[in-house]
């Protein structure tokens, strides 16, 4: 029996692929985790209805806010630990004193969080970050002895793939390519992993989910 | 006759540069567009997460979310003011499409008046309409009733139907602007999960998990989604152009839904 005086009720709308049974909820569909690993599972669900689920999550937040004095905290759990730490680090180094070696300029911060959010959306593993002065920041991934360095400034981005022996590849992107970072990042990943490049171009999907490995 | 209703709407602005929306918060955006205080506001908890604000008008939820890489204006059915009887919970749809339309037009006005941003690369409008049916057979019938017969689609009790077409058009009001105009018919299984959370939001181990006490109901729904979005351009879309592109997109949705026979009251070209 529900006790209306002490409990609130949330309604979450979930769209199931037919392969899911009624109670077999994948972790990505637990309310509040939509922006987490769910992105890597988007292909399992009918895309337009994923949008609907997103809206419903917002409704759920509304209900929570109405009842509680505090803001909903669901969003914090939506980031993987790696991206949560990355976001926090980006926020902190932007607020440092001007003479602090780790401080980055606001345009660099904006570009870095834009690229980071796109990386997250494409389910890239969270990168480490290196300081490179106030005018740029470096995202880094390691694979064996190879390293991928993504140097991001306010209006440019450069990818460098290196082994202990040599620089294997370097790709530079101009400002107008930075905004199409899913494409740029996809080619980076392809070059880094040695996988062939395949791109589905429909040009029609509003959330720009048009790349496939 | 099946009564189709809007389940959600969304208008999106994609930035022309990573810094385009850096000074905007969900709260500011809500004020600029709808000229009132939101019912709730969530500041950005992490630089990679959105800030968002929500309010409601006549049964419709209005929300805006500022993501690092896009601005979303979301519309959905407002939850009832009191918790419903769990046995009567169903899929919520927007009952007042006229209010949804009004909210969209307010947004387009705000854009046109330059209240948001001139640094926009793309715009996108997405509206989804649903009708809940008892089984796949009926849902497929509902879908077939709104798919033009010239496509020659035949369905019985197949599951997970998806059929999509794009009928792109060139804007009559914005120079060099091409719009994708996607119509997607589908049948999907929906699951509505209702669960209780104690006041204070903390679930102790003795109470079990939130999922553990969830009530789950399954529904079959026929869905038609309209997605009109501008193709990427070298040139930025000015505030006036954004407004014009959205108005054309809404007109396309209204004309299209009428042609298909969806006939959602309040969302018709008048």
Characterize the structure shown.
The complex is a heterodimer of chains A (213) and B (270). Chain A is of the alpha+beta class and 213 residues long. Chain A has two domains: 1-77, no CATH class; 79-193. Chain A is 32% helix and 20% strand. A five-stranded antiparallel sheet of chain A has the order 2-3-4-5-6. In chain A, β3 (136-143) and β4 (146-153) form a beta hairpin. Chain A starts with 6 loop residues before the first strand and ends in a 20-residue tail after the last helix. Chain B is of the alpha+beta class and 270 residues long. Chain B has one domain (5-260). Helices cover 21% and strands 35% of the residues of chain B. Chain B contains four helices and ten strands; from the N terminus they run βαββββαβαββββα. Chain B has helices spanning 26-34, 97-112, 136-144, 239-260; strands spanning 5-15, 40-42, 51-57, 60-67, 70-77, 120-133, 162-166, 169-170, 178-198, 215-230. In chain B, strands 1, 2, 3, 4, 5, 6, 7, 8, 9 and 10 form a ten-stranded antiparallel sheet that branches. In chain B, a hairpin with a 2-residue loop joins β3 (51-57) and β4 (60-67). Chain B starts with a strand and ends in a 10-residue tail after the last helix. Classes of the chains: A alpha+beta (213), B alpha+beta (270). At the A-B interface, β1, α1, α2, α3 and α4 of A face β1, β2, β3, β4 and β5 of B.
